[in-house]
Amino acid sequence: MKENRINDVETWSKAKILGEETWDITLFEHTEKGRNDLIEPHMHDFYLLLFIEKGEGIHEIDFTKHVVKPYQIYFLRPQQVHYWQLSGNTKGYQLMFSKNTINLIHGLSQLPFFQLGVPQLINLFPENYFNLKSTIEELNNLLLKNQNIDHEISILQFFLLLKKIQKLYNKEYPLLEQENKDLKIQEFKNLLEKYFTEHHQVAFYAEKLNITPNYLNIRCKKKLGITASQVIQQRIVLEAERLLITTNLPIKEIAFSLSFFDIGYFYHYFKKWVNKTPKEFRLSYNIYNKE
Q1: Which of 240, 270, 258 minimizes the C-alpha distance to 196?
Q2: Which H or E run includes 268?
Q3: Using an 8 Å Cβ cutoff, are 136 and 92 in contact?
Q4: Which is nearest to 68 in space by CA: 34, 98, 44?
Q5: With contact defined as beta carbons under 8 Å apart, do 121 and 71 qualify?
Q6: Which of 32, 106, 108, 150 is the 20 to 30 Å CA partner of 288?
Q7: Could you give the 3-state DSSP secondary structure of residue 228?
Q8: How far, in Å, are 81, 150, 168, 290 from residue 157 at the CA level?
């Protein structure tokens, strides 16, 4: 199967982007080390926050296109497919950090903007952006120092920045705050990410959560606005989209990799959500030749 994936989307490390190895937390001004023309779709093995202070363009994350404008923050998790094309006058910051960094301080609430199926950006008022900018600049100054105490303070400053952003994010998306307090919903999402390629039935996840399938559907409908079954279907279709666009695997092999052994049913399943067949989606979505 591997030989068919000649167009596999590449997973980038921080070292690939910056040309150097960096510590777990990396922060820089976009005008210094950032690129405006990251038009090759790729994934990261780290988390990324992109702060836009000035500029315009497009930023596409998992096949959803966003219009870039001043005073935005974009949030990317590892393994999300994305690319951007920004204007030459784009100004802001990029904050990159490893998967381990997020667990350096225990007992804090989960960061909502890195959960599955949530909005990937927030739009800020200028005063809120510049309040965050002062915190970013303080973090940047600490990261440049070498003493152990400065290293420890930088970790605290890093989490202070994330928590300030979380407060603004919760204000923009208040319903998500309630959703993130539901531990069963979060556990369901984590299980789904682990098993979605093999298990498509609500009953499988409900059993692991020690609740009934009907109750899981009701709980998801109340908290997420869609049933557990629809949550599962959306995740499967997203993976199918990623494979259709970022590889040249035959559609039959993509279906098999997602545990569809009836190709006709896979076509029906995909078209129900995307309003295109897998073949039509692949032909119409030429991600490697964007205008």
Answers
A1: 258
A2: helix 263-274
A3: no
A4: 34
A5: no
A6: 32
A7: helix
A8: 29, 10, 17, 39
Helix axes 228-246, 263-274, angle to 10 degrees: 100
pTM for this structure? 0.81
Tokens standing for 230?
A: 């629809």
Q: What is the pLDDT along the chain (291 residues), one digit of tens a residue?
A: 344 444 456 676 666 566 555 568 999 999 988 889 887 778 888 999 999 999 999 999 998 999 999 999 999 999 888 989 999 999 999 999 988 888 888 878 888 899 888 899 999 999 999 999 999 999 999 999 888 898 899 999 999 999 999 999 999 998 776 666 788 988 999 999 999 999 999 999 999 999 999 999 999 998 888 999 999 999 999 999 988 887 889 999 999 999 999 999 999 999 999 999 999 998 876 644 444
